[in-house]
Known about the structure:
Strand 11 and strand 12 form a beta hairpin. Helix content is 40%, strand content 23%. The structure holds calcium ion.
Amino acid sequence: MNETAALILLIEDDEQTRRFLKGSLSHKGWRIIEADNGKAGLAMIKNHNPDLVILDLGLPDMDGISVTKRLRQLSEIPVLILSARSQEQNKIMALDAGADDYLTKPFGSGELHARLQALLRRTRRTMPVSEVFVTGLLKVDLAQRKVFIADNEVRITPIEFRLLSILIRQAGLVVTHRQMLKEVWGAEHINDQHYLRIYMGQLRHKLEINPARPRYLMTDVGVGYRLAIDDVVTELAQ
Ligand code: CA
């Protein structure tokens, strides 16, 4: 898919936010279609097959979690949710229901474009088993299960490697505590957040120059973790 010609569906009832989004997105060359309620938005997904959806959590006819669930029955399309500060819990529920990332209102154009690019990039990427992931000084050979910082191999445990792989698969996007716990430890451990604190702390000590001010393994407070991908380069192993 050509990133610059991506078709983006806005599902948002607030006209001022829609106007801001339209201005900001069309400036980037993205094409835009709009709906001001959940039902109309779901119909547009079926009829227009957009590349990405920006979904407001506070809609007049349906809550954002129901829209996310219905949408996921129709399509694997990337979904960026917009939430107000008062919708913290709904935001997490929408992410666990299949939304891919979020922005908290108010947000700026820079943040918006970074999120959209991470989402569109992930859609375009295919993940061959030989893939090597590189960002900054961090290099992860996913096939060989090896991790390097500035070309020095770092020994990490199988659990640490799985956590890192999940973050790489969603590079640049948030992964909720619940998603990480479920995938690594199983559904019975989705509330055991202390597991994550311990293992992510260990990973930071191994991968970050200053674990207290991480450069790669970022915390989204109260939501989950995010692998920062400034200057991301993905290449195939030789
Ligand atoms: Ca709204």
